[in-house]
Amino acid sequence: NSILSSVLPAPEDPILSVYYACRDDPSPVKLNLTAGTYQSEEGKPHVLEVVRRAEQQLANDLSWNKEYLPLNGLADFNKLSAKLILGDDSLAVKENRVVTFQCLSGTGSLRVGAEFLAQHHQQRVIFVPNPTWGNHPNIFNMAGLSVEHYRYYDPETRGLDFKGLLEDLGAAPSGAIVVLQACAHNPTGVDPTFEQWEKIRKIVRSKSLLPFFDNAYQGFASGDIDSDAQAVRMFVADGDECLIALSYGKNMGLYGERVGSLTIVCKSEDVAKKVESQVLLVVRAMYLTPPIHGAAIVTTILKNSDMYKDWTIELKGMVDRILSMRQELYEALQARGTPGDWSHIIKQIGMFSFTGLNEKQVRLMAKEHHIYMTYDGRISIGGLSSKTVPRLADAIHAVVT
Ligand code: PLP
Is ipTM over 0.90? Predict the structure, then answer.
């Protein structure tokens, strides 16, 4: 008599099924462009040099130990993470109305924020962009929130559906939570301009919606940490509330360390204290305290002005390589005379390109060319190199002609 044998298999995850198909493909030239991780020109996982240095420094520091962290994580890490997002001279920080919690990367920060909102916010509807990162609905549904979509991408123009976005947010129920990707939108690579952000801010505030920023790519859009935080800072500058999930997965290449933060900006110090006490209850029941190593690496780098500078140079180097891969791919398609307008490849922002290939073409790319991408036609530009661009361009040319 088995209790567990009645468990039904979970529905197939489309991203994982592409991942497995690639893993099981014996071709020596297979190319995996599904995952959003930055690879070196040699196609290998890339560890930042400044991260290696920080780890060496930590290994030699005998005052360092492996005791439990407090429930909210490393204090310096939290202070420096709030500063990274909100800026050096944030009024909200000075007024002590900001609370930050070290969490398990971007995903864990979103999950803790969602759990807190599910318990303490009357309005359980949360709006995410259409399309958005595939895990957003899972995270919010599992916390008991009710996920709706707002229009974001227009396949016709391969740009932002700004009118649709404003209409949908304008029609959202008062108090609804709105997930806004702070920069380098995944999967579309399309971000609002700053003028558009200002209009979004106005509608969010006038409808009393609660913005929840997903800041998974700070620095990866423009190569500059401060420019990429500008949309978030516009919202914080108006003195109203918001939540921000920050990940160090991409911008420090610390994917597997699971290090990130949840920052909650409140209207007063008194509110911030109450919010903090409740988030700590959520954290305590979910995992007690966060892991130490990744947060120690981040803190070592952010604290030391030389290491911070070296980090920003390495980050800019990653962004520049991605930009040159975009350019090379665009030029390779031009050179082949591939039908269609491919300028979106150089216009889109961040780690991904939404190629416009349909599911049938994506399947052909895998079957005939051993090139793997998500079924929505998204490729990770961070997984390309000068060596692999010509093969990709040949394959795209073949499947669209
Ligand atoms: N948010 C977005 C938009 C992402 O694309 C990702 C990762 O791909 C994440 C959050 C979470 O990443 P992590 O949990 O590794 O920080």
Answer: yes
